[in-house]
Queue: 2 jobs
Job 1
Amino acid sequence: MEIKIADTKEKVAQEFSEYFKELANSQETFNVALSGGSTPKIVFDYLAGHFGNEINWKNIHFYWGDERCVSPTDSESNYKMTVDHLLSKIQIPEGNIFRVLGENDPQEEAVRYGKILDNELPKLNDIPQFDLVMLGMGDDGHTVSIFPDSISLWVDTENCVVSMHPDSGQKRVTITGKIVNNAKAIALLVTGAGKAEKVQEIIKKEKYFASYPASLVQPSHGQLIWFLDQDAAMRLTN
Ligand code: 6PG
């Protein structure tokens, strides 16, 4: 595991974008799972603003690690956020975008999306393999859309499952731990002081770390990089 600490969240976005560019341009088809949240938003702005012409977008296939069960035009949709901040600003073939249909029945969609992963992605040990899974971590230690109160979904045998946000009750379709941990590379982007305590517990394996889904991000053979800003990393350095 590697930990990169940047001064600000904008610097995190820059560092991750450079890492993304290197990886993505180094191969013909690059399969990436995106996440939602505030940090990816500034990453997408950076990618579109600085690397619009420097990345071979036609080689990149976009998937989502999780999606909220809402329509693709809803302000809560991770797909909409990605369209607004990245996809509408780059030259990318429509066929390279594999979105979760948040407007459909959640359970049926989890099954359908799981099959898409089976059919489209190369496999390792019979499990679909992403080149890169981009993750965030919530203040409660959740990652993708697997929350502490339903942490057992992480080890579900399906590729995708339905989960529920513990406060709002909003349903989500999310990939499971076997897909996350089978990736060639995993990037965990975490910014802000609100995350510092969980970052400390997880990285130092202290206190309640085992109850946070983000602590289960442990690639079986790939690379894991934490991209942190100073605020999120403050309890690591003290
Ligand atoms: C989602 C996410 C989620 C997110 C974290 C961190 O759709 O809600 O994919 O897992 O990455 O909640 O979000 P922030 O970057 O906003 O803290």
Job 2
Amino acid sequence: MHINPKPVKHFWQINSKNLYMKVRPSVKILQSQGLGSRRECENIFWNSEIFRNETRLDPEIDEISLGDTLLIDGNTFEITQYKYLLMHKPAGYETSHLPSHNPSVFDLLPKHYIKRGLQAAGRLDVDTTGLLLFSDDGQFIHRLISGKVGTKQEIEKIYEVAGARPFTELQLQRLLEGVDLDDEPEIIYASRASLMTDGRLELGITTGKYHQVKRMVAAVGNHVERLHRRAVGPYELPADLPPGSYIEIDPSPVLNRGSAKAA
Ligand code: URA
């Protein structure tokens, strides 16, 4: 966003000891949205054209609140405590803030999302495509990556797997009965395993181990050629969402799930 370099007006207050600068709540809210440093957000608040419901805000009297939809210098921002995004991850992107050999999925998001602390809920390998969720709400991320298996909080992830060879009935059965993976203390089960009409495997898992799908498929004697994630818990990848694009989602299906105790 263009930040107008005009001088910022400050409010000064006096407490019992000294004179101090008062930060307007609006400036703190803008900062919480990842729109810049405090100084930059002061500049935005005092010097940018900010509209709410087609009315220009007067920084002398108006305040910004959570829930507002603002037009700031022509860009729309929904002011929210947290953000929840669903991305169609393309192949060739690493799920990391510090990628080693490829661009990062975070490069596909506007900078203000990164500045406000958006994290990916789990990882997809660089060559894996499909549904990837992001949020700056720690509770939402926690529920997605550590939803306990066998409880109401369990999160099933559904993958579509192209194998190097056709999948056999025996391989599907072995995935459902559980496979013994190196370095995993427990047997790992598929929550679903069936053949799709195009010959790919539809595989569901409820745990999130390192390269889990690739290792499970290798353990039954096949090899993953292409891997695509279609769903995570209540979220499905919309058929019309192009690779590299994202949408905002409603977190309530995850946040409102029953507690583990009630399961
Ligand atoms: N399992 C894998 O092996 N890779 C992924 O990207 C996701 C799950």
